[in-house]
Amino acid sequence: MGNETSVLKVYVDESKKKVMFAEAQEDFVEILLSFFTLPLGKIAKLLTKHEDSKHTKVGSLSSLYASVDKLLSQHFREASYKDFLIDPKNSSADICSQLKVNLNRPLATTTTSQRDVFLNKKAKFIITDDLKVIPIVLDTSIALLNSLGVENIESLDERNMLFGFDEFSNLLKWSLLRNNPLTTLILGGSNPCSSFFTNYPLKNRAFIPSDDSDKTLTIKLLVQKSKKKVVCAQVENRFVELLFSFLTIPLGTFIHLTKDDSSSPAIINLYESISCLEDGNLLKSEDMKNILVCPKLSPVYNRVTNLLPIYEVNTLEGSFLREGPTFIVTDDLEVRTSPSISAISKFNTPGDTEILDFSIGEQEALFLLKASFKSTSALTECLKAFRKKPKGHVSDFAFIEDGGTDSEEEDFPSEDENDIDDSFVIVDLDI
Question: Which residues, 6+ apart, have CB-to-CB distance to 143 below 8 Å?
Fold first, then answer.
């Protein structure tokens, strides 16, 4: 691994055990911005394979990623297709290779002669503990220091920290887990973010339900009625292709498709700082902004699903998998090949389970993408959010919940449409 590092000057309030803010050059900020070019599968790989992050789970994506790694190559059309999922390709790989620290390829030799990768000029920046990035100019800097309650900068402990691949990987992790990633990384803080992407509904996208078979698919859910929880799903190739496509989506595109203004975890603050950099004419171009806020998928990926707006219009259709038997997908999106009858019996609790047909369209697919990143019960969250039953379907849930009335609208207790359980989002087992 190369020994390139970037310097971050941090200002610590020892009495509060808190990083009040940090000062960085443009090379550090550009590495932060490169987070948004990383495919979700690459992030899952970094956080599960990295030595200090082996106990961290990214919602259900970690289980999905691990199941791809375990799936035999014989199930893929080409061996390289599996490789493209367990080591997802970044469409901005060439650009990121010019950074001091390249999270795409930890063993790569970086180009050190160029520092203006995403930004168009040398500059210094203030970075807050929750990763707001602000150019250092007189008026905004004074306002920021006042808002942080910094009356005398001389009272703070000034430290110069070297950031290499390991440090940036951990900062990425804590930006997803905490609202105070700098304090957590530098001082070892342990207070978890109360809820990552709290009340994080889908953007109000004008999706229209479609009867086109290419725009919908049906899966069979095995549901435990007493816990109102999906045990597993029996699915065809098309649903697995949809799940596998999640791993190829860059973080910036994921946030672009799913974010709303009510959430403020650190990674969202960093994402929204891009607009501040644009307003200050610090970004190289509009194209460079798009590479960060809505990066394209790598051209190595064919269109494997029509249920997500993630492909270019001229992307060729294709598939990762060979045609074959059905798959079993668990609630946390672990993909398994069709098990034996004895294995299936382990999922069943007599009298407490039922089979539901669940239709996946554009809205459901987008919600499932969001849920896969934030919850270890992605299928349950999706069923709860879209719980309208097919016409004429009678569910035992109806008899449990409404005293025997067969409501065609509710399988689960009445609640606000956006009221979903966000309590276990991204799970850090070290906490």
Answer: none
Question: Does 37 map to a domain?
Answer: yes
pLDDT per residue over 373-388, tens digit each? 889 999 999 999 987 5
Sheet containing 217-224: which strands, arranged edge to edge? Answer: 335-337, 327-330, 229-235, 217-224, 353-360
- Do 237 and 324 touch, CB atoms closer than 8 A? yes
Tokens of 288: 């460079």
Residue 375, domain member (yes or no): no
Give the containing element (helix H, strand E) for 379.
Answer: helix 378-385
HSE-up of residue 29 (Cα within 13 Å, Cβ side): 32
Q: In which domain, by residue range, is 33 found?
A: 6-58+90-199+252-293
Q: Cα(426)–Cα(368) distance, rounded to whole angstroms?
A: 15
> Residues 6 or more apart from 279 whose CB is under 8 A from it?
none
- What is the residue-wise DSSP string for 319-367? -SBPS-S-EEEETT--EEEPPPHHHHHTT--TTSEEEEEEEE-HHHHHH
The answer to whether residue 153 sits within a structural domain is: yes
Contact 157, 9 (CB under 8 A): no
pTM, two decimal places: 0.84
Distance (Å, whole) CA 421 – CA 431: 20
Neighbours of 413 (CB within 10 A): 12
Q: Which amino acid is at 242?
A: L
**Number of domains composing the chain:** 1
pLDDT digits (tens, 9 = 90+) for 7-42: 999 999 988 899 999 999 999 999 999 999 999 999
The answer to whether residues 408 and 388 touch, using CB atoms and an 8 Å cutoff, is yes
Q: CA 217 → CA 160, 236, 392, distances in Å?
A: 54, 9, 19
- d(CA 311, CA 102) in angstroms, rounded, equals 25
The helix/strand/coil state of 373 is helix
326 within a domain of the structure (yes/no): no
